[in-house]
Specification:
Elements lengths: L2 H4 L15 H33 L17
Length: 71
């Protein structure tokens, strides 16, 4: 039975949608976790690249070398 025929009528052949098994849920969660981790890594790389691009002209050392505390 199709959607147009079986859903609106009192059909004896109507069955509720099948639920995912535990193994299918584990696979779905693993895929979702992979995409979440990939999105986080992409965000870190994007922020690092944007920070380097904005501060490229300001990253220099002092002319006297490293600053040391006097005793």
């Amino acid at each position: 039975m199709g959607i147009l025929v079986g859903w609106g009528t009192a059909s004896a052949s109507w069955k509720p949608p099948m639920h995912a098994t535990f193994f299918q849920k584990v696979i779905i969660c693993a895929i979702a976790g992979f995409f979440a981790a990939a999105l986080l890594e992409w965000g870190k790389m994007f922020v690092t690249g944007a920070d380097d691009a904005l501060n490229k002209g300001y990253k220099h050392t002092a002319p006297g070398g490293t600053l040391k505390a006097r005793p």
